[in-house]
Amino acid sequence: MKKLILGLIFSSIMLVTTSAKAAGEKVMISDLSWTGAKVIGHIIKAVINGPLNSEAEIVQGLSDGNLIMAGMDKGDGKIDVYTDLWMPNRQGIWDQYIDGNKTVAVNTPYKGTQDMYVPAFLKSKVPDVAAMKDPNVAAMFDTDGNGKGEYWAGDAGWKSTKMWQVKFKSYGLTDLWEPNIIPQDTFKAQLKDAIDNQKPILFYYWTPEWLHAAYDLHEIGEPAYTEGCDSNMNLDAEDWLEVSEFPCKSRQATIYVAYSKSLEKRNPKAAKFLSQMAMDPKVINQWILKVGRDEMDADDMAEEWVKNNMATVNKWIN
Questions:
Q1: pTM of the prediction?
Q2: CATH fold group of domain 114-243
């Protein structure tokens, strides 16, 4: 009897140990500040914690792309996943860690756009960049009375925030326009107020995002992209605004989930899943709409979507 009990205890220990090894180490996911990145992070977490039978956690507040990539480069498990890597915006960290150190890998990307917008009721007044050179047009967007129109260029710390300042300089608009660099949530509140009250507002935004489903927006026309027209960009230089030029429409962005290659040993199932995750921008819009506009809890949204879309999830994990 004693031998039987000892045997059962030993078997239980071995089963727990084997299950833990099969599950792999906990996967630590970044917490980038824009809603698209956040919902992708929660979908990744829901897949790993659910169908993958492993464990994942979002590292609250870890939103600095440089710190995330440096941590993934170390491969010590403190951070493993960069949820929404926009290229070519983050060419510097791509060159260093993906092409250079080869310590970070990526999935099959989805496509996104980056443009300037006004509410559709301003389309006739601001159809394109050329119209923005009119002082009377710029004056419509001057909210502080300093003689310059404001535009939302993005949040502090975003490379795209610098990019739009370079674009405005390259288009010869800096005498009439200035960037309004504020948090995304603050901007969204300003946008809602402007649209509700038919007030002028000009801003940078991207797809996928729920704003395009919620509001009628007009994309500002820019000179067409031509090969090499964005090649004179050095946003990491100390004098980045002076040395950079970007006088054309942005290329369609290519957007990845990046992950530490150390996961291939620490949690092979998670690494395989992340390498095979292929997302549809229209589906991402639906995730963003539920969380960003309808204020659904991100964990609830992700768990519900995973449960109802196992055919897609199985393609990612098998």
A1: 0.72
A2: D-Maltodextrin-Binding Protein; domain 2 (3.40.190)
